[in-house]
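Retro notes
What went well: the complex prediction finally ran end to end.
Inputs used:
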Amino acid sequence: MSYVIFTGVAIFLSLLAFVCLYRAYIGPTAADRVVSINVITTKVTVLIALIATITGQDAFIDVALIYAMMGFIATIAVSKYIEKGKLY
Amino acid sequence: MAKDIVILVLILGSGFFFMVGTVGLIRLPDVFSRMHATTKSDTLGAGLALIALMVYRGFDPVSLKLFLILIFIYATNPVSAHIIAKAAYDKEKRAGGEL
């Protein structure tokens, strides 16, 4: 029962990630693209946690945690680059 | 059985809020409006999905790791939205545009 629901939500989240990728493609400014990539990162983190529960592989939870951290670092770095024109 | 109903409600709420955020990201006209739509909806959607997974797993170390991911997302998502907004605002102000 729960496996069916988790699989359905995982497929739905992957489709929504592609819709967000459309905004990253057409976005007029660079900030639009950063917002879109941030949203996709959150979605993929939840998706990895769902897949870890569906397949029963507990090690994937660590992958989700590291993916959330890497998405945060990427957002900070690109925003600083937009703001200052350099990274430091 | 009651656990299944709780998981169903939480995970469907998560899907609904993710969908609201995506519709806002596609439809709204401005950078700041899009950020306003996506940040809150995505934070709440991720929180509901991770709470549903925690309820499904029960009380064990994996559930603790899921709680750690939830705290991390709740702490960092508003911070990254604030930094993107500051970068976009400064860039537009430097270019002399109307805000």
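What we learned: The radius of gyration of chain B is 17 Å.
What to try next: split runs per interface for comparison.
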